[in-house]
Write a structure and sequence with these properties.
Blueprint (H helix, E strand, L loop, with lengths): L9 H16 L9 H18 L5 E5 L3 E5 L13 E3 L2 H9 L11 E3 L18
Parallel strand pairs: 1-3
Antiparallel strand pairs: 1-2, 3-4
Helix pairs in contact: 1-2, 2-3
Length: 129
């Protein structure tokens, strides 16, 4: 059985993110990528966050594409978790790639005492280098 750290293929993640990178950098000058391309980039990057920050104390949501419980701490099992980070796909992907910072991200909805801990694990893949 594969370990949790073996779930996300780094090459597939990087390719998915590279595929949406022009749109992330210039949303007015570049057409929006296909829904499937945005979905793949969100799902793979959210999965990578879950691998890098294992736990269940914060739920990160990128509706309608992906969600993950991550960050070590108290375990939440039912209903709405006390620590939630939610944003649209473009905001998430800019955070996941290092194109935006936690403090500078517009459209980021953060609630709960420990939700900001997600910032420690970003970017998931730094495409700014």
């Amino acid at each position: 059985m594969a370990s949790r750290s073996d779930v996300t293929d780094p090459a597939a993640l990087r390719a998915a993110l590279q595929g949406v990178l022009p749109w992330l950098q210039d949303p007015q000058g570049v057409p929006r990528p296909s829904r499937s391309a945005v979905a793949a980039a969100c799902r793979l990057s959210i999965a990578k966050l879950g691998e890098d920050a294992p736990g269940h104390s914060v739920e990160v949501r990128v509706p309608p594409f992906a969600a993950v419980q991550c960050v070590a701490g108290s375990v939440h099992r039912r209903g709405t978790p006390p620590n939630v980070v939610q944003c649209d796909a473009r905001t998430w992907l800019r955070l996941a790639t290092g194109l935006d910072t936690w403090e500078g991200a517009a459209g980021l909805d953060v609630s709960g005492a420990h939700a900001d801990e997600v910032a420690h694990w970003l970017p998931v893949v730094d495409l700014t280098r």
